[in-house]
Amino acid sequence: MSSIAAISVPKDGQIEESDEEEFGLTDREEADLEKVFAREQNAVVNAEAYMEQLARELSILDGVHIVPVLLIEASEKFVRVI
Q1: What integer pLDDT is reported at residue 14 of this predicted model?
Q2: CA-CA distance, 36 to 44, in Å (whole number)?
Q3: CA nearest 18: which of 28, 10, 7, 29?
Q4: What are the sequence ranges of the domains in the chain?
Q5: Residue 64 and residue 56 in contact, taking contact as beta carbons nearer than 8 Å
Q6: Cα angle at 10 between 8 and 14, to 5 degrees?
Q7: Which helix (H) or strand (E) holds 6?
Q8: Greater confidence, 6 or 79?
Q9: Residue 39 to residues 10, 27, 32, 36, 58: CA-CA distances in angstroms?
Q10: How far from chain centre, in Å, is Cα 32?
Q11: Mind listing the pLDDT tens digit for each residue in 1-56?
């Protein structure tokens, strides 16, 4: 079992920290918490991968939209020359 500093809440409502171990996590609770934290870590990793994918797609879209703009500018210059 893990040792956790306990917080006592007396009837007057004043919170005091205690060095005494008043409760702890069971092995099962600790394993469950580790699973939750692992899922959260995966969510962060997945979010980072998703952001990288979106950045790549945005870059591609920027390139797709720049070509027509450049073509319009080139045709406007051509029209001015004529």
Answers
A1: 59
A2: 13
A3: 7
A4: 2-81
A5: no
A6: 85
A7: strand 6-8
A8: 79
A9: 36, 18, 11, 5, 28
A10: 21
A11: 445 555 555 556 555 555 555 567 788 888 888 888 888 777 777 888 888 988 99
